């Protein structure tokens, strides 16, 4: 065969092979693209850090400095849910509008009243003329559509306040547990002072703008006045609530809240967790496969989206994560994604250490005592150190 024909034949053969390869590759590429898109939402799960046991004979342990969080949220903080150790922060002490996250303070007052045995979970709470929001548009103002004169148990209203962000539930509970001589605003300020939430501002129990608070509008204040607190303060109240009622970490994961406005009537409303589970959780970039056990959202047009969440890693460590300024106020995804991002940064840059009673730890910053200090532990627990410093403390 002439060389030029042999060459042309080779070229044709090469082209045919190339065409077949491209065709097959194109099919693989199309199929692969679907897999790639799925992987973007379901990244490979990485291992979470295992807890290191530290010998009781080890010298003083050094706690990790709170890491500077790199997140698109304007304010953020991550603390250990059991010890209150501050693990990461960003603008954590800036006062911002917190909207419905305000309900966490009302929850604190309720839990204290239960602890003091002034009320119980089964105590019936009346819906008053002021707390009756049944005529409000439910698409704008979350409520239970209950009416003046009806009574619901503390447990029902408490769960509705958390899982539905029901404004009428928050108003009714705050009025019920506050000292009779105080207005609702005065009671909120009193509770905030007891928790040392310095410079925070409080107007109503539901976190509504003053102009939208209905009968709870505070006179002689701007229409735009709103509850303000820092992410550190929101984390502090969340931490105190878990101490008052550890069972809160197990609640609020139902897809709907069932309640009884009257003995003859049963109603059910979809919870925030249901919306999160269906519309947000599947799309989170979550390499450590962290879970949300409990959360309370809040958002304002001025300050954007926020959430206070109790999160858990695959090793069982529980973290309180609070973010604000995460996307605009109607977007739900950014507040949860930035929470995952913040918690992941902490877990990748710190090492959990199991310490025993009477061991000394230095450089410890907690949500109750944010200035680093040295202390001897009164109880055993898990604290967090630098991944580099802890290597010499391991027990073989």
UniProtKB/TrEMBL annotation:
GO terms for molecular function: hydrolase activity. Keywords: Hydrolase, Membrane, Transmembrane, Transmembrane helix. The chain crosses the membrane at residues 21-40. Residues 66-326 form the Peptidase S11 D-alanyl-D-alanine carboxypeptidase A N-terminal domain. SUPFAM superfamilies: beta-lactamase/transpeptidase-like. The keyword Transmembrane helix applies. Pfam families: Peptidase_S11 (PF00768). It comes from the Bacteria. The keyword Glycoprotein does not apply. This is Serine hydrolase. It comes from Fructilactobacillus myrtifloralis. The lineage of its organism: Bacteria, Bacillati, Bacillota, Bacilli, Lactobacillales.
């Amino acid at each position: 065969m002439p060389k030029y024909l042999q060459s042309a034949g080779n070229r044709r053969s090469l082209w045919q092979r190339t065409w077949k390869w491209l065709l097959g590759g194109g099919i693989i590429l199309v199929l692969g693209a679907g897999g790639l898109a799925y992987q973007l939402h379901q990244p490979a799960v990485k291992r979470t850090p295992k807890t290191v046991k530290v010998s009781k004979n080890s010298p003083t342990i050094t706690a990790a400095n709170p890491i500077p969080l790199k997140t698109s949220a304007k304010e953020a903080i991550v603390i250990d849910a059991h010890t209150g150790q501050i693990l990461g922060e960003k603008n954590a002490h800036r006062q911002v509008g917190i909207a419905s996250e305000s309900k966490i303070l009302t929850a604190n007052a309720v839990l204290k009243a239960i602890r003091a045995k002034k009320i119980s979970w089964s105590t019936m709470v009346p819906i008053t003329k002021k707390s009756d929001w049944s005529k409000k548009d439910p698409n704008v103002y979350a409520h239970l559509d209950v009416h003046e004169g009806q009574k619901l148990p503390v447990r029902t209203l408490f769960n509705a306040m958390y899982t539905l962000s029901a404004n009428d539930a928050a108003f009714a509970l705050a009025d019920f547990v506050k000292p009779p001589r105080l207005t609702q605003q005065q009671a909120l300020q009193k509770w905030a002072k007891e928790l040392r939430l310095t410079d925070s501002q409080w107007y109503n129990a539901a976190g509504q703008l003053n102009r939208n608070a209905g009968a709870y509008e505070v006179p002689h204040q701007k229409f735009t006045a709103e509850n303000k607190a820092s992410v550190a303060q929101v984390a502090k109240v969340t931490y105190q609530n878990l101490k008052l009622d550890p069972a809160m970490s197990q609640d609020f994961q139902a897809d709907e809240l069932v309640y009884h406005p009257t003995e003859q009537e049963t109603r059910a409303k979809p919870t925030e967790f249901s919306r999160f589970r269906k519309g947000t959780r599947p799309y989170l970039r979550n390499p450590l496969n962290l879970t949300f056990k409990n959360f309370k959202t809040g958002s304002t047009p001025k300050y954007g989206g926020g959430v206070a969440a109790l999160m858990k890693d695959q090793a069982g460590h529980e973290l309180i994560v609070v973010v604000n300024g995460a996307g605009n106020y109607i977007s739900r995804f950014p507040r949860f994604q930035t929470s995952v991002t913040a918690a992941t940064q902490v877990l990748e840059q710190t090492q959990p250490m199991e310490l025993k009673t009477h061991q000394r730890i230095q450089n410890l910053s907690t949500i109750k005592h944010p200035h680093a200090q040295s202390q001897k532990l009164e109880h055993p627990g898990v604290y967090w150190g630098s991944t580099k410093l802890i290597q010499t403390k391991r027990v073989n």
